Amino acid sequence: MASDTQRSDVASNANRLPSWLDGSLLTLVVGSSLVVLCGTLVQVSFGAFSMSIGQAWSAVFDPVVWSNPYVLLKFFFGEGIAETLATTFGLSVASVDLTKETLIVWNIRLPRVVVGALVGMNLAVSGAIFQAVTRNELASPYILGVSSGAGLAILLTLVVFSGFASFLPIFAALGGTVAFVIVYAIAWKNGTSPVRLVLAGVIVSTVFSSLQTAMYLLASDIGVVQSAIAWTTGSLTGTDWEQVRMILPWTLFVTVPLSIVASRQLNVLLLGEKTAKALGMSVERVRFALSGVAILAASAAISVAGIVGFVGLIVPHVVRNIVGSDYKRLVIGCLFAGPALMVAADVGARLALNPTQIPVGIVTGLVGGPYFLYLMRKKQQLGEL
Amino acid sequence: MTGDSIQRSEDAAQVNAERTDVERDDETPSETPCTHLRGEDLAIGYPTTEQPVVECERVDIPAGEVTALVGPNGSGKSTLLKAMAKQLDPDRGHVLLDGAAIRDLGTKELARRLGLLSQENEAPGSLTVEDLVYHGRYPHRSFFESVNDEDEQAVERALELAGVTHLRDEEVGNLSGGQKQLAWIAMVLAQDTDVLLLDEPTTYLDLHHQLRVMEVIRTLNSERDVTVAVVLHDIGQAARFADNLIAMKDGELYDWGPPRKVVSDELLRDVFRVDADVDADHPTGPHISPHRALDD
Hints:
Chain A has 385 residues and is mainly α. Chain A has a domain at 117-378: ABC transporter involved in vitamin B12 uptake, BtuC, CATH 1.10.3470. Chain A is built from 18 helices and no strands. Chain A has helices spanning 2-16, 23-45, 53-60, 63-66, 69-77, 79-88, 100-133, 146-160, 168-187, 194-218, 222-233, 241-261, 263-269, 273-278, 283-305, 311-323, 327-351, 360-378. In chain B, helix 6 packs parallel to helix 7 (207-224). In chain B, the strands form three sheets. In chain B, strands 6-7-8-3-9-10 form a six-stranded mixed β-sheet, sandwiched between helices. Chain B has a four-stranded antiparallel β-sheet with strand order 2-1-4-5. In chain B, strands 11-12 form a two-stranded antiparallel sheet. In chain B, helix 7 (207-224) links the parallel strand 7 and strand 8 (227-231). Chain B is globular, with a radius of gyration of 19 Å. The interface between A and B is medium-sized, with 27 and 38 residues.
């Protein structure tokens, strides 16, 4: 008996160290990375300016770009910061001549892929967090009124306050946050509960959507309406390094680290409110803080791509089916699978009806709907986590 | 009734205190003293109810003993237990853990000293037993802290004590109801608390697992001096396994004390509304032979 226990001790220790990184998660990570890679390959190769795949890849790995840190810095940080950084580190700031192919790939095609990947990452993690907070598999980043709040803010900006159009991303994110706070306030009654949060989300969404529709009627210019539709369905058309600069810091310093750190809290929340409380968790505080992280992630995505639906709903689902419900693995899986879906969907959005580009949100919706139908048919129970 | 009750409770507490003192002196003199839980002047209600559901002047969960709360459905056992675990804030009165009001203790601090297993528990089906039990270490770990040796030892002890070591890699969703309950018990055991409150841990289990659960509780109490309060449906089981019974009726304490004293024909008639014979001298505790349900 004693030796038995000891043996199982040793075995468990050996299993424990890399226990969260097992075959299924590894497969998912590698597979997703491959999808992103292929998506990137396609995106940089095709477009209005045609070049061969070989040309496209030699442009991506153009030694002139990679050997000049200043050029890279300029892409990622913008001219001002890049120059400061370059001078502090004593790098050359001399301008270099880039070939036409390199310019097109680096200035137009590559940033769009990078933005898409970051949007996917944020939405997937946001959805994963909301599903744990509301203990509902059908929750999405937009469940707590975020999309309707952001949508209303977008329309208000475009239609009423058109002078502030350049602040649109910030207003969109703010609108989402405000709606979330209203939802929380409505749901609060001696504390909240997942069901009340979802119901309050439905209430706020309904009211805000009506207001949105009313706004459309006020718009006088068809261009404004088109722009509003692009924002409210989610689109990556015309994204640039500027968008990368907007979303990258949030992703690196908020979404990724906080979601990984929070995975243990999320796991305990999944045991139910009573158990979490009995284990000494301040459930309300944790739930609010986690929702805050998810809102920030969703807002970061909205601010560059508008309201892209279904990504935050499907990706956590797919990942959960593959790696199980442990949130450490789920979050890491989402960080890879989110970009994979988004980059792949954007290939379709950009190239399917070439030269017309459709909003990427339409593609994710077209993929997401049938996937849910499949899930509904296949799984007996869908809903509660 | 009330004055008499208080007197009786003080007597019982006195007796209990003496008894545990003696036991401790005999067995393990260096052991840290057991923890004692007491409710004073309690009125407990839910946000949705106007009147308190439970009212009692004083309730004692004596240190180092197993106390069973028994009573018919709706008598307030679970409500009282929830208030004792700070899951419900009483409208009036307070709960004292070794003399300190639990209201003033931090949530994690309380969870390190007092564990609670609720009646119904849900876990994601793909969670393994071992991972579930590791969650019991939550109150012992700070936000950024990872698993340390102490956590691992506590988990191993808990798995062994609950007898689920062989199930450690099984997914909770694939276990039988009884195994699942033992896994959850292992989780609260890993919490390593001085006081353990269990809400109907044997309901819905087959007889084998009911006895397994009760044996785990007894072992825990005798080996680690954990103070246990357990809500039980089966008064026969309560009489057999508990050191003390607290019988509740309509949100009030009806009687309390050692099973041989509390369990009587009268109790079964008044509280459970059952016509029964009680053999108080049975070797394994008072033995109940129920005959029929009494009309109102």
